[in-house]
Amino acid sequence: MAEFLMPTLGADMTDGTLVQWKKKEGDRIAKGESIAEVDTEKAVIDVESHTTGIIERLITRPGDKIPVGTVMAIIREEGRPTARVASSRSVTAPPAPPPPAQRTESGAAAPSQAGRLRMSPAARKLAAERGIDASTLQGTGPEGAITLEDIERATTTPADIAKPVGAADRQARMRQTIAAAMARSKRDIPHYYLSTTIDMDRAITWLKDTNERRPVTERLLYSVLLIKAVALALRRVPELNALWKDGEAGRSERIHIGTAISLRQGGLVAPALHDADRLSLSELMQNFQDLVKRARAGSLRSSELSDPTITVTSLGEQGVETVFGVIYPPQVALVGFGKVVERPWVADGLVVPRPVLMASLSADHRVTDGHRGGLFLAEIDRLLQEPQSL
Amino acid sequence: MSAVRNREHGLELLRHMLRIRRFEERAAELYQLGKIHGFLHLYIGEEAVAAGSIPSFTNEDAIVATYREHGHALVRGTSMNQLMAELYGKAAGCARGRGGSMHFFDASRRFYGGLAIVAGGLPVAVGLALADKMHGRKRVTGCYFGDGAVAEGEFHESLNLAALWKLPVLFLCENNLYAMGTALARHQSQPDIAAKAKAYAMGADTVDGMDVLAVETATGRAVELVRNGNGPYFLEYRTYRFRAHSMYDAELYRTKDEVNEWKRRDPIATFEQTLRQARLLRDEDFQQIEAAIATEIEEAVAFAEAAPWEPIEDLNKDVCTDVRRTT
Amino acid sequence: MTKITYREAVRAGLREALQRDLRVFLMGEDVGQYGGTYACSKGLLEEFGPERIRDTPLSESTFVGAGIGAALGGMRPIVEVMTVNFSLLALDQILNNAATLRHMSGGQFNVPLVVRMATGAGRQVAAQHSHSLEGWYAHIPGITVLTPATVTDARGMLLAALQEPDPVFIFEHAYLYSMEGELEENRPVVDISRAAVRRPGKDVSLITFGGSLWKALAAATQLAQEGIEAEVLDLRVLRPLDIGTILTSVRKTHRAVVIDEAWRTGSFAAEVAAQIMEGAFYDLDAPVARVCSEEVPIPYPKHLEEAALPQPDKIVKAVRTLLG
Question: Residues 6 or more apart from A312 whose CB is under 8 A from it?
Fold first, then answer.
């Protein structure tokens, strides 16, 4: 028997709300297949199973708020005797269902089979304007669809309707979560900051040439170059690619770059681009686009949120020139990129206009020092001067 | 018996035919160079019909033609510049370049196309004649079509209605013996086309369409009959197309021998002989005509090359008339 | 206000048109001695003579084409094609000549032609005489398509059409000829660019035209008894479509049912639904619904014909479904 536990879907996550089971008791589930949707207050995430087998028992119920590590389901592993209890993890939280206070009783509001809420376009628009999470409402329109009137009713009498995961609430809670993580970071981590200006002329020229030869759909963004450069530089300075755990830094074998993505409705997530150092620029671009799309659609995978080993944040689009970020615990470093600007630059003894970029490093002084940090930034600079080798 | 009235008359007919042939030869060349696209139906071999018949109509009369209408428009007087620009698809063309080879139009010469659905022009011609009759105008509408049109219902409906209402329309059938690739005998139970017209109670003649003088005489007489209020009249010109139906075809439907046999009756060569025998054409006349036409063609090509394209913003212009509706 | 039948209204329009402009003439099958299949031109031959009231042979393609030629020649022909079913024989002239000549000639030639025809089912005349093809015609750029549903429009639209420089097609629903209505005499010429709200409402828009207008109005009356206020829109002009009026209504009611006597697939109702989607998607509170004819040749027996066509109860049902 294997236990399915409430996973850690982010360093700061202490508990999650089960939105829905994707399987029922008796269903077969394969490793990597989605078993449940969990609301982490940052996003609704599809959680995959790490076990292949038959679902023996679903313990927790949709609407339950469940502490990380709690047993949520029992899976009978395939090819293994039923009697074997396989859990090697110590389960601290009791497997009993938590109090039902937060549960939604309404069954009619269940999302449609396709996973998309049955809701009229006008209602959707109004709900967005008023910050209402319609997934909790009971529709009165054709085939149970949520209509304008349902939204009107929800707005006028909010007290009557349970809103455990209302969009407005979720946004507020996401803010709270970020606040807690950042406060913890600033309290616990002795940050040091370095920055350097990088000549982007070659990188941009190379990118332009490359893109001209690519179909429109396969063109690269220069942020992908930056991510790849960070990933390769981490191979040279691996101590920055680490997680702080139990009073010491543990280096990560693999390089998963957390990429800060701001959400349209507000808030921020930094899901991982896995093995960024091993992917080609095209693969990286594809994965990056996919990640942005899914982050904004609220359909990130659990592993993506839980395992970045470093974070890259680019605020160039916002017009920012220099970024000094706050490290996302338990990571030990964060790289910030500003926007590319034209500046006078001395090259071969001449002052020439060049596109330049400010790269910064925020790093944990408990793990590294300015010397290693400087080396790291210099390596990024060097890599960006040879864009073809990325 | 048709005869050349005088030297000017003879040279004029020759000039009309040569202009059509040289224009089309150049058009075929430009097509191969990729300057002209789409369909290009050449009239080469049939020049005597347009050259001999179109001058019988006055400026007040109307002409309705088909997709093989380069010759008719040239003889009618639309400038070669405009026609060449139309073949190019340029905005300076006689239909702003929108129609191309099959859709020459010229309102100033009452030239109503350039209508490319076989027999589709006949009802329109009947209507133009109806308008003239109701207005009491002594105009004639000349309606050209091929032997293929004879198989269409609109042919029979139109002949019937025109005769029934005694409308001033002259039906001009250019029988080149093939409806695209189908020989007349293979699509008509009664291959005598003039006989069909007579069945609708109108006068009809069969004319040698390779003889420009015969065409001129027969058409002139028919136009006057129609103009004088005798109702419609019908002429069948027996002629032959030397080239493929459009630019190219495999010509599986006729033999080389047949084509060569007809080429021996080339309307230009035979008329040139007639003029020379009557001592109405000297070598230098011929050279002068050819030279003038060559210059005109080169100017037309240069004009078309230099002419602007219709701007894309004008794509929707003239789908309907731009009028402000009053409410 | 005078009470008058639709047939009399069409005849009144024809008479006025013939009186006003000597270039106007009427031609078609049995428009003269017979007095018109639907008696719309009864008495006109006697009044205006055979030059202007012309009986034609059964040659739809040629007399429509002759209308085009006469229009090119400076006349203002009104061509009556007995029914839309026979207009198929004239489709070449309509599409290849009437609709294209102006554009294809680079703006040199106008075709100020008016073609009238009866359309629609509902009179037990079976499959070959019951078509509703005005939506097909509305597909064609270069022409105007009118569907008068009231006696005022039956008269006024004809007069307005004769003012147009381009071809206008008027589809008179055969079922309406005997209908009586109030003629607004102060409106000799009506506007032919706008849709009309025939009954205001706030809960759902019933969008229709021609013969179906009266079915939609009947449905609205029935819905009112249930407390549902349906707005009824008469499109009047299918091309160019007055999408503004449609969107205004849908933005108000958030729901729309399009009623069209044509077959559902590829119907004009489909076009209206698509344009609502394009223009008012975020105002919709329910999918746009359609009430169209069943996809069968219209059968002869009354019960089957009724079952095949849009009916007030079908409209009511569609509205109830939309309201959940």
Answer: A226, A227, A230, A257, A258, A259, A260, A334, A335, A336, A337
